[in-house]
Amino acid sequence: MHSERDSETTFEEDSQPNDEVVPYSDDETEDELDDQGPAVEPEQNRVNREAEETRETLRKDCTWQVKANDRSFHEQPQFMNTRFFCIKESKYANNAIKTYKYNAFSFLPMNLFEQFKRAANFYFLILLILQAIPEISTLAWYTTLVPLLVVLGITAIKDLVDDVARHKMDNEINNRTCEVIKDGRFKVAKWKEIQVGDVIRLKKNDFIPADILLLSSSEPNSLCYVETAELDGETNLKFKMALEITHQYLQRENSLTTFDGFIECEEPNNRLDKFTGTLFWRNTSFPLDADKVLLRGCVIRNTDFCHGLVIFAGADTKIMKNSGKTRFKRTKIDYLMNYMVYTIFVVLILVSAGLAIGHAYWEAQVGNYSWYLYDGEDYTPSYRGFLNFWGYIIILNTMVPISLYVSVEVIRLGQSYFINWDLQMYYPEKDTPAKARTTTLNEQLGQIHYVFSDKTGTLTQNIMTFKKCCINGQIYGDHRDASQNSHSKIEQVDFSWNTFADGKLAFYDHYLIEQIQSGKESEVRQFFFLLAVCHTVMVDRMDGQLNYQAASPDEGALVSAARNFGFAFLARTQNTITVSELGTERTYDVLAILDFNSDRKRMSIIVRTPEGNIRLYCKGADTVIYERLHQMNPTKQETQDALDVFASETLRTLCLCYKEIEEKEYEEWNKKFMAASVVSSNRDEALDKVYEEIEKDLILLGATAIEDKLQDGVPETISKLAKADIKIWMLTGDKKETAENIGFACELLTEDTTICYGEDINALLHTRMENQRNRGGVYAKFVPSVHEPFFPPGENRALIITGSWLNEILLEKKTKRSKILKLKFPRTEEERRMRTQSKRHLEARKEQRQKNFVDLACECSAVICCRVTPKQKAMVVDLVKRYKKAITLAIGDGANDVNMIKTAHIGVGISGQEGMQAVMSSDYSFAQFRYLQRLLLVHGRWSYIRMCKFLRYFFYKNFAFTLVHFWYSFFNGYSAQTAYEDWFITLYNVLYSSLPVLLMGLLDQDVSDKLSLRFPALYIVGQRDLLFNYKKFFVSLVHGILTSMILFFIPLGAYLQTVGQDGEAPSDYQSFAVTIASALIITVNFQIGLDTSYWTFVNAFSIFGSIALYFGIMFDFHSAGIHVLFPSAFQFTGTASNALRQPYIWLTIILTVAVGLLPVVATRFLSMTIWPSESDKIQKHRKRLKAEEQWKGRQQVFRRGMSSRRSAYAFSHQRGYADLISSGRSIRKKRSPLDAIIADGTAEYRRTVDS
């Protein structure tokens, strides 16, 4: 691995974006981004200023008002908004979620309105009206009405089924229940009945129905543990804590009933991590922040019950605000198909106009002088030509096939069911099948260029497992027996000797157990003791079992590992920690916890042993630990080598060390620590400085290696997609080191990848902008552009960029603007012009910079964006869509991925986890990332090929059918006379030629699913639009024109000067129409046989069945019986039986079909022989190709001394629970009687207010 840095470009440290922080929230105001005030100011001034600012801020920003237990308050006139004319509605949303489109009354009018918004449907409605005018139409009205009703009916039924499913899903969510205070007591109510201001009770494992302020809970100090999997995909628990005042007074039902608190807070927004507000109660105000708010979509865990006040409901909740705008998605082929339909419209009008002119000329030259053609109307030739124009519009309307859209919908629906029914995408562990949640995007799955993936819960399982460790320079964790002999096959370590073992750890190194039990090396026991005490994990005993709650899954994995190896963390109080050491229970005094943060990258704990010794234990990232080690550390190099080994195996590493502290040294340090703890400003910085003083001269114990478990098959899937020329970008809110490590684990990054970081590409982009400015100014896009690569070709590069650098590079960074300037308006026209020009200049510069960034990123084989917000994820996807015109797919599992999923052309949700928000917003869902390869390389590719074949054939068969009228016009005076029987025109697209093409669109496949996965390069044809484009369309057009000429002119030549066997001439108009129609049906049905790659009984039956159906219906319609019943509708009486008993006619039909198909057969043969495609080659040799070979992971070659890569230890994204533990607020105490609680609480409360 190499790192590119531009040594000539330097950046000021202060202006550098911070890689560790997630950038500003999506809705952050400019006031929030303003610089802080001076660092040092008199205390009283600061208090006065803060009070004034708080009052001003509340007055300005906190306009959302909530009154507890008072629904009428929120219905006051000032809270009403005018929705429609004089209809008013409360600005407070109700808690019902509505995703459906129709109800029982609106379905028919709204659905018809939406269907007639489609150009083709509206066009056929106009045609139907025209056909009702006798002067214009030579075609019966039912020829258009019947197909139109079929199309509208099928589409309406499909829309109805989809909407019924949405109704069911909405009802399922809206009818969930919880307890709400009504009429002075808690009553069970449905979610949809909850309103802002209600006080509700939630129990363990309940979903939170709205955004609520936590008032109290069953836990000490009203702590409440929540799982946020539905928001961010993370399964580790986070804690929230109520205000002390509400914890004291709002535990009982009667006190909650009389609670009349008033809240002023920010308006509803999408900031998941931020909340600002104030609670006014008992003539006092209490500040509120995000730690006191439970968000909708989270789940209550390890808390028996909690009470809360609803602040935001329904559409106002943060999870709904984060869902982004729902976009109506259409495929590339949809847009192309529409343009082609418009092209056919233009051709139709031009042809009709030409034939109308021909009729006007013919009338002037021939018609007016032919007495036998007089129809009793004295119209001028030009007027007759005008009428004939509309007549030809009606006759040639089948050039724009009415059944095209409904056929496309049926095919897509069928393909969606195939995805749903695919057992190879079914996940039995969670009983989760794949689900096509939309039926309109299937073929686009075969055209994907870029995949944007979340990390946590999508690529990884978010399950950390202890894999290996290095203690005193010795690596443990390989397959070894107790005598240090390596074995490829060995049984798991049996932890049954340990009563506290949880039985979940799979470990195979029996030698480590031997070392622990023998006690030969004290460092081994010291190592696991450190893991058991140096953490901020909370413990809870349930039915005699220990349950750990950790701020991050890494920390939980390490404490669980220590527990299994015999050092079990049992309990803690505010200043003690109890550990079982190989069965012996010992309690240690906790003197200080030096908590983790993203700058320190380490945490420490200072404990006093029962013998009175003081010791500091520390764990952290190797980069920070090695700087603080004592010079005399004999195992330093061996541990470094072990870290390199662990890193090469993409394990998350962490160094452990300790230090003996003298009593005097501790006393001196503790004074500084206590002083820093009460500093009023910059407390964190002061504490960090004090921590630095004690965390030095450490003695290295060893290192741990944790595996962030990938989902099964992730590296294989990424490898297959890369071979299909699909680029994969990973977008995550996690830290840079963690994201990079996962990149290596899933083989998105490899050892020979050159990694570029934000600062590298910032310099490159700056240089490119300068060059572009020098060449053509910032408006360089108006100058013919020459694509210059950013990197020399041939090298494998990857880009890793953080959210802060992304804002910096894309000029998205919000800057502070002077408040004076905000009020300054341009005074003169010149100033206004200059300001507009400046704004335009900045926009053009920003656009060019963004385009350059996309060009640079797309030159990399992989891109990893870390520490990004949900809005930035969507922005990255949108940039690639906008500047690369590429088809994108986004895949994720949490609410923070919803915006990205909705922005991409196709959104995929990972289901089967707790979080379902991403699935609800997705187009496709399944349980494991590995199913993506089958979705794209099999279903996507097949869908694309089927749809392209279907469209090419559909246009061909309609051109061949319709243009016969065009050639016939030259022989009937351009009189808009039809060449076929009316009923044949009506049923041609509905019955005679519909089934074979539908089945080809549903069942055809060029190669099997196994071969599709084995040869991912087959996918590339879809990315390049090779199977359906304007060229292919015009080929179909020309093919249709030639077929129509053959269908018309061969029978015409055969009918000229012909006498039948019985001496009668079969060359009447009706016999001619039957001959052409019969030849047409056989030709187009045999043509689809030539286009079919995958033959089944159903295909064969449909082709020959359609031909048989045609002849059966034709003989019925030409019978005397039906003519007697409907004489005006069935006028071809006896034609079929008379014409088709002549062998001459059959020879004509056979000749016509042969001439129409033999050139196609010859062309196909030459094409497959001389210019075979990839799929042709695979089809030819498929019998020789074995079943799909097993993919083998790339073997890692470890080279000692190479530049190592390691993830900094991911404690969590925020500080841990240290403050909570130190304050003692998390420790359970025996409950006092209520009176005592109130008395003590009131006294304490008064003291707090007075101070």
Automatic annotation (TrEMBL):
<dbReference type="GO" id="GO:0045176">
    <property type="term" value="P:apical protein localization"/>
</dbReference>
<dbReference type="GO" id="GO:0016887">
    <property type="term" value="F:ATP hydrolysis activity"/>
</dbReference>
<feature type="binding site">
    <location>
        <position position="456"/>
    </location>
    <ligand>
        <name>ATP</name>
    </ligand>
</feature>
<dbReference type="Pfam" id="PF13246">
    <property type="entry name" value="Cation_ATPase"/>
</dbReference>
<feature type="binding site">
    <location>
        <position position="893"/>
    </location>
    <ligand>
        <name>Mg(2+)</name>
    </ligand>
</feature>
<dbReference type="GO" id="GO:1990531">
    <property type="term" value="C:phospholipid-translocating ATPase complex"/>
</dbReference>
<feature type="transmembrane region" description="Helical">
    <location>
        <begin position="1033"/>
        <end position="1057"/>
    </location>
</feature>
<feature type="compositionally biased region" description="Basic and acidic residues">
    <location>
        <begin position="43"/>
        <end position="54"/>
    </location>
</feature>
<feature type="binding site">
    <location>
        <position position="454"/>
    </location>
    <ligand>
        <name>ATP</name>
    </ligand>
</feature>
<dbReference type="GO" id="GO:2001225">
    <property type="term" value="P:regulation of chloride transport"/>
</dbReference>
<feature type="binding site">
    <location>
        <position position="455"/>
    </location>
    <ligand>
        <name>ATP</name>
    </ligand>
</feature>
<protein>
    <recommendedName>
        <fullName>Phospholipid-transporting ATPase</fullName>
        <ecNumber>7.6.2.1</ecNumber>
    </recommendedName>
</protein>
<dbReference type="InterPro" id="IPR001757">
    <property type="entry name" value="P_typ_ATPase"/>
</dbReference>
<feature type="transmembrane region" description="Helical">
    <location>
        <begin position="116"/>
        <end position="133"/>
    </location>
</feature>
<feature type="binding site">
    <location>
        <position position="896"/>
    </location>
    <ligand>
        <name>ATP</name>
    </ligand>
</feature>
<dbReference type="GO" id="GO:0005802">
    <property type="term" value="C:trans-Golgi network"/>
</dbReference>
<feature type="binding site">
    <location>
        <position position="596"/>
    </location>
    <ligand>
        <name>ATP</name>
    </ligand>
</feature>
<dbReference type="GO" id="GO:0005783">
    <property type="term" value="C:endoplasmic reticulum"/>
</dbReference>
<feature type="transmembrane region" description="Helical">
    <location>
        <begin position="983"/>
        <end position="1003"/>
    </location>
</feature>
<feature type="transmembrane region" description="Helical">
    <location>
        <begin position="1100"/>
        <end position="1124"/>
    </location>
</feature>
<feature type="binding site">
    <location>
        <position position="454"/>
    </location>
    <ligand>
        <name>Mg(2+)</name>
    </ligand>
</feature>
<keyword id="KW-1003">Cell membrane</keyword>
<dbReference type="GO" id="GO:0016604">
    <property type="term" value="C:nuclear body"/>
</dbReference>
<feature type="transmembrane region" description="Helical">
    <location>
        <begin position="389"/>
        <end position="408"/>
    </location>
</feature>
<feature type="active site" description="4-aspartylphosphate intermediate">
    <location>
        <position position="454"/>
    </location>
</feature>
<feature type="compositionally biased region" description="Acidic residues">
    <location>
        <begin position="25"/>
        <end position="35"/>
    </location>
</feature>
<keyword id="KW-0472">Membrane</keyword>
<dbReference type="InterPro" id="IPR023299">
    <property type="entry name" value="ATPase_P-typ_cyto_dom_N"/>
</dbReference>
<feature type="binding site">
    <location>
        <position position="867"/>
    </location>
    <ligand>
        <name>ATP</name>
    </ligand>
</feature>
<dbReference type="GO" id="GO:0016324">
    <property type="term" value="C:apical plasma membrane"/>
</dbReference>
<feature type="domain" description="P-type ATPase N-terminal">
    <location>
        <begin position="75"/>
        <end position="145"/>
    </location>
</feature>
<feature type="transmembrane region" description="Helical">
    <location>
        <begin position="950"/>
        <end position="971"/>
    </location>
</feature>
<feature type="binding site">
    <location>
        <position position="733"/>
    </location>
    <ligand>
        <name>ATP</name>
    </ligand>
</feature>
<keyword id="KW-0067">ATP-binding</keyword>
<feature type="transmembrane region" description="Helical">
    <location>
        <begin position="1069"/>
        <end position="1088"/>
    </location>
</feature>
<feature type="binding site">
    <location>
        <position position="652"/>
    </location>
    <ligand>
        <name>ATP</name>
    </ligand>
</feature>
<feature type="domain" description="P-type ATPase A">
    <location>
        <begin position="174"/>
        <end position="237"/>
    </location>
</feature>
<dbReference type="Pfam" id="PF16212">
    <property type="entry name" value="PhoLip_ATPase_C"/>
</dbReference>
<dbReference type="InterPro" id="IPR018303">
    <property type="entry name" value="ATPase_P-typ_P_site"/>
</dbReference>
<dbReference type="InterPro" id="IPR032631">
    <property type="entry name" value="P-type_ATPase_N"/>
</dbReference>
<dbReference type="GO" id="GO:0032534">
    <property type="term" value="P:regulation of microvillus assembly"/>
</dbReference>
<dbReference type="GO" id="GO:0021650">
    <property type="term" value="P:vestibulocochlear nerve formation"/>
</dbReference>
